[in-house]
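Below is a filled-in request sheet from our internal design queue. Each sheet records the structural input a requester submitted and the sequence that came back. We keep these sheets so that new team members can see what a complete request looks like end to end.

REQUESTER: design group, bay 2
PRIORITY: normal
MODE: inverse folding
CHAIN LENGTH: 250
BACKBONE (tokenized):
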């Protein structure tokens, strides 16, 4: 209110066009005050000056819009960085540099790698079917730590959908006072075609949800002498509707 009163007093003191001309800088350069005064007292400006004021106002508005957009982008980046920090270092979903190696990770829409004859024969022996290639996985240090006892598989790395609607609903359930994710009972075949009873759980993270193979994962690691950077292709298939996962060494 005080600012409006002061502004009206200022306009009242500039009683005519000549007075404003004397007070205005030479040559005329519009300022923020002109944007405020010109709608209240347009008679104090020539047509050319009003055009200059209008152009200046449009320019100022564009600059403020761009500044706000830049600040919003920075805010999103800060939020993204905070989310990434909440995920274990090895599981962070970030752009990766090209790696010079002979094995190329399959991408969505490309042909799945070949499944060896010994694996196909074993699936046939079990009367299995609905074979799907799920993902490429390189083992991180966190996948091998015994106190973790789990293999993590980020959901955004999967090549296809492999769960039924009922199984997905099961993984969304939480149990106990600490609301821990409920597990899905499955069977896992290791690279030597040995069977392990395990659980598949879904953990919700900020960047991407993660499927984890838990319970007896340490036994799989020990039996196969898995090391850091070991590369795996992971497949799924079903035996009488029951879910199996298959680990293939590269």
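RETURNED SEQUENCE:
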């Amino acid at each position: 209110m005080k600012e409006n009163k002061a502004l009206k007093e200022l306009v009242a003191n500039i009683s005519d066009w000549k007075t404003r001309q004397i007070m205005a800088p030479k040559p005329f350069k519009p300022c923020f005050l002109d944007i405020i005064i010109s709608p209240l007292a347009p008679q104090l400006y020539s047509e050319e000056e009003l055009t200059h004021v209008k152009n200046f106002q449009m320019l100022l508005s564009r600059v403020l819009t761009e500044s706000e957009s830049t600040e919003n982008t920075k805010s999103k980046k800060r939020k993204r960085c905070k989310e990434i920090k909440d995920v274990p270092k090895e599981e962070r979903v970030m752009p990766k540099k090209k790696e010079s190696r002979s094995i190329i990770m399959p991408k969505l829409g490309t042909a799945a790698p070949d499944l060896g004859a010994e694996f196909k024969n074993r699936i046939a022996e079990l009367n299995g079917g609905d074979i799907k290639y799920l993902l490429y996985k390189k083992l991180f240090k966190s996948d091998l730590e015994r106190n973790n006892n789990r293999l993590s598989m980020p959901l955004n790395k999967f090549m296809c959908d492999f769960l039924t609607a009922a199984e997905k609903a099961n993984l969304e359930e939480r149990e106990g006072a600490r609301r821990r994710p409920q597990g899905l009972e499955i069977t896992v075949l290791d690279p030597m075609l040995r069977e392990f009873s395990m659980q598949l759980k879904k953990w919700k993270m900020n960047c991407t949800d993660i499927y984890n193979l838990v319970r007896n994962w340490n036994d799989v690691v020990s039996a196969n002498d898995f090391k850091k950077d070991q590369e795996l292709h992971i497949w799924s298939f079903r035996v009488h509707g029951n879910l199996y996962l298959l680990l293939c060494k590269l």
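SHEET NOTES:
- The radius of gyration is 33 Å.
- The beta strands are 128-138, 150-154, 174-175, 180-181, 184-189, 195-203, 210-214, 231-239, 242-249.
FILED BY: M.R.
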